[in-house]
Write a structure and sequence with these properties.
3 domains, alpha/beta, DNA-binding, 434 Repressor (Amino-terminal Domain), homodimer, 6-stranded parallel sheet
Chain lengths: 345, 345
DNA sequence: TTGAAAGCGCTAACAG
DNA sequence: CTGTTAGCGCTTTCAA
């Protein structure tokens, strides 16, 4: 049960602990005789030696640990992953990290915790933060001296790398598409709009497309709540209650779009016959639901992969400066949109 | 940029490092004068001190880290979380851990890696492993001296705690339900059946229910592949190709059931009119898809919560012996099943 | 090519 | 009530 340490290996092999450390790490340009190497390796194997990375990090100042902070979207809500977007992203992050010899330290975050301290506590080598807003307390992060990459955040700070998409253009693309399909009265369904948040950008894009087409942005076409399936259903309820007449909706998240669609269908509104829907994200669910969702596609896995690679690059090349990745967006057509000829209503 | 250590705090407060450590940890039954406590706390705050948990763990022999190992279901496939079951489970685990002052070390696992070494590397205080099979190399885990809890595994080893459900009975319940609804010819759609795996138990349950009703288990009613949405669609394709005549299907995972349903609907088979479907898990998707899924409900969040609590208990009470939690299963009726009167076919 | 020794930051006896 | 001190397991000068 007693952990075998480098000391035990050293004794077993009849060498010093330093030597063991040398052969185990084999820095370039170091030289240990083949024979000693052999002896040490055998001893380690015989003793079933497993290095203690915590101890290593204490002297080597790196942990091979990447901290992943995911916001607890709704305060008090345990379930961060009700939006599959996070699951998909995390998968990619984990996979890429592991392939490169890193492990993940995963933590949700409550508003009252500051991101920096958990990172410092554990001495992570890099940090991935998903979806923070400007104004959240990120200052401390700047000073802890490890690369930080912000995914889907409009915080602009020369200290942080970013991975993102053009939310505004994606939204414009989606809305435009609906307009091209002959829709004039288009709802905007979204999580709450917070300044410089992803949703506010998407709202801008929606407005731009409407205005460009000479269409009014009506207050009563806005359905704002939380990014959740539940709110999607509530929005559907409101739509029906109000006797709303929008023939299409741009919904800023697939999960929300699915809730909206479900709620509508349950109330006898048919999709896309009565109302067309375009979502955003293209989570894998979008093709699994019924009707499958026409949506703004982004490469979620790539996002996660890049986030990790960004950190690895920064680690390798500490003064390369800030990196900024913008991933492309496309529109994936499925079954939730129907063309509306001019006369119809 | 230089990290401030306990030493700096000690100097600033004019006390020894031990004292600082004492006030910071405040063990029960220790006593430090209010004044010193005050001084130390102020010094720490002034210096912006953040403890280094790695260093702490080196001397205290615990890390406040729980290792979570999730199988990479399909070899080479990056995307562990295509099954939302894992996302939901992980959410609960993360939340419970964090509420108790633990962080999560997350790692997927490839077949060739042994679970024990990563745990030892990082010195985690406990390990949660999701869905391993007997025969996978778990021996090393037995000897590393930290509590291990197996979630959804039929490995029986007195060294490991377990959290699970009665898969066989759940499957029996589902199949029986279909039989009660008047179905005689019932398909079994599932991931591959591996000895003592979850799916094999569910298969047993299916067989039992069929036999108890005097119904034959036909080879051609078995659709076996992987637990994925894709395979669900393939199974649907096979169903249609074969001109199969089953009027119902028990599908061993919701994600699979959704793929199956989608594939069928695309091929003009209507659900539940032409074929009824019962799933398993009750992931949140099950109520979001269309038609919503009648399924065997299990409390996934509770599973994750218990897994963590199990570890905490074991840590607190090291020789309390092996714990085994079996969570209840119920059948949740939604829209994917239709009664079939005797004469119909 | 190898070893001795000084830490990394913190905890935990043991003294005082 | 507080300080001294000896590690925890490992890396890394510096010498030999």
């Amino acid at each position: 049960m007693k952990r075998v340490s480098i000391k035990d290996v050293a004794r077993e092999a009849g060498v010093s602990t330093a030597t063991v450390s040398y052969v185990l790490n084999r820095h370039p340009g170091e030289s240990i005789s083949a024979e000693t190497t052999q002896r040490v390796l055998e001893a380690a194997a015989r003793l079933n030696y497993v290095p203690n990375l915590n101890a290593r990090s204490l002297s080597s100042r790196h942990t091979n640990l990447i901290g992943v902070l995911i916001p607890q979207t709704e305060p008090g809500k345990a379930f961060v992953f009700s939006n599959p977007f996070y699951g998909e992203l995390l998968s990619a992050i984990e996979y890429t990290a592991r392939e490169n010899g890193y492990h993940l330290l995963l933590s949700g975050t409550r508003e009252d915790q500051n991101y920096a301290s958990i990172a410092q506590n554990r001495g992570v080598d890099g940090i991935v933060i998903v979806g923070t807003y400007p104004g959240e307390n990120l200052d401390a992060l700047r000073t802890i001296g490890v690369p930080v990459v912000l995914v889907d955040s409009y915080v602009t700070d020369s200290a942080f790398h970013t991975i993102g998409i053009r939310d505004r253009e994606g939204a414009r693309m989606a809305t435009q598409y609906l307009i091209e399909k002959g829709h004039r009265d288009i709802a905007f369904v979204s999580g709450s709009i917070r300044e410089n948040g992803v949703n506010s950008k998407r709202y801008q894009g929606y407005c731009e497309a409407m205005q460009a087409a000479g269409l009014p942005v009506r207050q009563d076409a806005l359905y704002l709540g939380t990014v959740s399936h539940e709110f999607g259903q509530q929005a559907a309820d409101m739509y029906v209650q109000r006797g709303a007449k929008q023939t299409a909706a741009f919904v800023t998240a697939d999960i929300l779009a699915m809730g909206f669609a479900k709620g509508l269908m349950e109330r006898g509104v048919s999709i896309p016959k009565d109302i067309s829907i375009v979502g955003f994200d293209d989570v894998y669910l979008a093709q699994m639901c019924y009707p499958s969702l026409t949506t703004v596609h982004q490469d979620i896995a790539q996002k996660g992969k890049l986030a990790v690679q960004c950190i690895l690059d920064a680690l390798e090349n500490p003064n390369a400066g800030r990196m900024e990745h913008i991933l492309p967006l496309t529109l994936t057509e499925r079954d939730s949109v129907e063309e509306r000829s001019a006369g119809e209503c």
